[in-house]
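Usage

Read records sequentially. Each one opens with the input sequence:
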Amino acid sequence: MNLSKSMKSAMYALFFVSGFTGLVYEVTWTRMLTTVFGSTTYAITCVLSAFMGGLAIGSFAIGRYMERRRNPILVYALLEVGIGITALLVPNVLGILDNIYPLIYEYAASYLWLLVLTKLVLSLLVLVVPTFLMGGTLPVLCELFVSRPKESGRQIGMLYATNTIGAAIGCFAAGFFLIELLGITKTVQLAAAVNFLLGIVSLTLGAHYRHTRSDIAPTDIDEAGKAL
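and closes with the structure output:
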């Protein structure tokens, strides 16, 4: 798709904010899950592995899905809304897990490998849906931005860099400010509200883009007819 500079700048800004919320979630979910599993190295490693695994699965699966789709802006908007909805459900799932895990621990505590595997599987079950959706945002925007093969490396690199910078700032903000000021639950709610806003803005931009294209197309056709 051929995007104007203003449209590209707007999508870069949205993806920057998306990266910010993604790492806010990672920090808060790690805090939540370590209250269930404990603050051991194994527990934190399992949570981070589940988070990154969900991202990888989502990136692969949604990337394949986008090969057959022609409306990446709509898909991106739905992903952002889906991230917000599923992120709000994570604390409820953790409440259930908090009641189940002590029962599992009694049987798994004697075997370190089984205990670690249990933590990894439970972390993945809790985080797989929102992280799956997060992982899909990059390939969707790559489909939107990359219109020429020669520019694909630069465009994807810019998208990834923009998202990573936002993620780094989100990690810093959540770890040092947001959780202390708002608490974990309200921090998650704030990040979810931002995801909903990203979805709404994306839909608005998509509608504006389609309207602009429909206005331009007839003009181009008329000019081509006059030239003939």
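Summary fields computed downstream for this record:
- Confidence is low (pLDDT under 50) at residues 216-228.
- Helices lie at 5-37, 41-66, 72-108, 112-145, 152-182, 184-227.
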